[in-house]
UniProtKB/TrEMBL annotation:
It comes from the Eukaryota. GO terms for cellular component: cytoplasm. PANTHER family: NAD(P)-BINDING DOMAIN-CONTAINING PROTEIN-RELATED, PROTEIN YEEZ. Residues 6-81 form the NmrA-like domain. One of its GO terms (molecular function) is aldehyde dehydrogenase (NAD+) activity. This is NAD(P)-binding protein.
Amino acid sequence: MSGKTPIFYIGATGYIGGSVLAKLLKHPSADTFDITALVRSEDKAAKLNKLGVRTVIGSYKDVALVERLSEAAHVVFSMADADDLPMVQAILKGLKQRHAKLGDLPILIHTSGTGVLTHGQETKGMAATDVIYDDSDFEQIANIKPEALHRNVDNAIFEADKDGYCRTYIILPSTIYGIAQNHLVDAGIQNPYSIQIPMVIKASLGRGRAGMVGKGLALWPNVHIEDVSDLYIILYDAIVTKGTEGVDHGIRGYYFGENGEHAWGDISRAVGQAMVALGLATEAEPTAFTDEELEKYFGSVETGNYWGTNSRARANHSRALGWKPKYTTQDMLASIKPEVEAILKQQK
Ligand SMILES: NC(=O)c1ccc[n+]([C@@H]2O[C@H](COP(=O)([O-])OP(=O)(O)OC[C@H]3O[C@@H](n4cnc5c(N)ncnc54)[C@H](OP(=O)(O)O)[C@@H]3O)[C@@H](O)[C@H]2O)c1
């Protein structure tokens, strides 16, 4: 034993995972971390090795590998996929074995998403709804339906914590925005781009005018990539400082990443304004995507209609950890033009 904390990291090359890993590598206790990342690219693995991160080449679909690497870790950061149940089951199996063999109480920090709050709030953009979830309202959180998005995975994690062989904490980012800027991006290791806003931009560029689902009235929370990656560090530090029992875990361990709310139409309007400013459209006002466009740009009508769901969240639990997000919805709207420009550059 090196005396260091063994950490198993899944998603090191991703938008969220890379941004959090960049902060872990600059953490005041970084020299006490022994990080092993599961990555698919040999090239990125070599770059991570140079930063002091051990790597194993492989996929999280290889559940035997995930189980073995999880068993070897006191802390697992699950940053790659909010919906892959077999991967999470393999992590939990590994942690269970570790607990049985060593008596250690390992820690899982998993990434879910506020998509879990959209269940029953699907209005295809035609209306805002008034159900607002508060991550410090444990009864409200416990009552989220098992059929909600991500919840099957989250429920498996709650069960593991209840069984007592590990302690689990789940961060639920909302619409994350901003192009990540850190030394992992500079080294060509991580993806610097988010998902939801870039998809609206790509669809809008594709059709030559900003688009939205329905009337764009549905509401979602948003958070800047810098702020949400800070939340992981603040949560980790709280667990280390206060001990696993000093921080709410299991079914009480839901932490939203949210610092403001937007109507999807406002995002589309900002995309439209950027398109007009860049000479790519004559009208800034967005129009509704047709079903054919949803299929073309989002993969299916059902997937596209996700941009017309409501997810309303207040991150009081996260803030109670001492998290102080800096960026607001105004910053999110201001981030859209640079995002459009970055996408245009990629498409050249
Ligand atoms: N971005 C958001 O706004 C947001 C908000 C809430 C929740 N989430 C959820 O958070 C999760 C991560 O999102 P993200 O934005 O960080 O996505 P991302 O940038 O696409 O990152 C995904 C990460 O998972 C890795 N990965 C994918 N398949 C893998 C496999 N089979 N084996 C090993 N690694 C694999 C990728 O590695 P490669 O480099 O090899 O592809 C990458 O490191 C997703 O489930 C997403 O839905 C995202």
